[in-house]
Amino acid sequence: MSKLSAGGKLPSFSLPAASGSTWKSADVAGSKLVVYFYPKDMTSGCTRESQDFRDLHAQFRRAGTTIVGISRDSVASHQKFRDRERLPFELLSDEDEKVCGLFDVIREKSLYGRKFMGIERSTFLFDGKGVLRREWRKVKVPGHAEEVLEAAKSL
Questions:
Q1: What is the structure's pLDDT at 134?
Q2: Catalytic machinery residues
Q3: In whole angstroms, what is the distance from residue 29 CA to residue 10 CA?
Q4: Distance CA 56, CA 101 (A)
Q5: Sequence-separated contacts (24+) of 113-122 with Cβ below 8 Å
Q6: Cα–Cα distances in Å, from 108 out to 104, 105, 118?
Q7: 32 near 130, Cβ under 8 Å?
Q8: Residue 4: closest CA among 90, 143, 105
């Protein structure tokens, strides 16, 4: 499987969404797209990142950009998280890590000396033709959503 890189095309995929529907990448053809991968619902960094995208959502919409968040959490977990944080965009459940694999975001991580495989916080910005224009890996949350918004506006 080749790693997605700048200039590459948005992979075709579908995942169950917090809304109860199935989200398909084909459904956003012609729109700019932000796909952000985050480790876990209702944890401090992931909550802050999702809130930042929520707070800038109207500006992303004005820039013609759709946002989706993806983690390995269940649809039920996503529904609770989305409701609690009033997130106006879809959260997608990738429990079998198929899409995480397409985007190459599963990495060995360490927590309190314990090694495990988990999602490396990463964001991908696609233009209206589905071409990857920017990627951010090992994302630090403060200021990140604003940087992504500026990049989306510049496309």
A1: 96
A2: 46
A3: 10
A4: 28
A5: 118/39, 119/37, 119/38, 119/39, 119/71, 119/72, 120/37, 121/36, 121/37, 121/38, 121/39, 121/45, 121/46, 121/49, 122/36, 122/37
A6: 12, 10, 6
A7: no
A8: 105
pTM here?
Answer: 0.95
What pLDDT sits at residue 68?
A: 98
Mean pLDDT of successive 10-residue stretches along the chain, which has 155 residues: 78 96 95 98 97 98 98 98 98 97 93 92 97 96 98 97
Say how far apart CA 36 and CA 134 lie, in whole Å.
Answer: 12
Output the pLDDT for position 2. Answer: 52
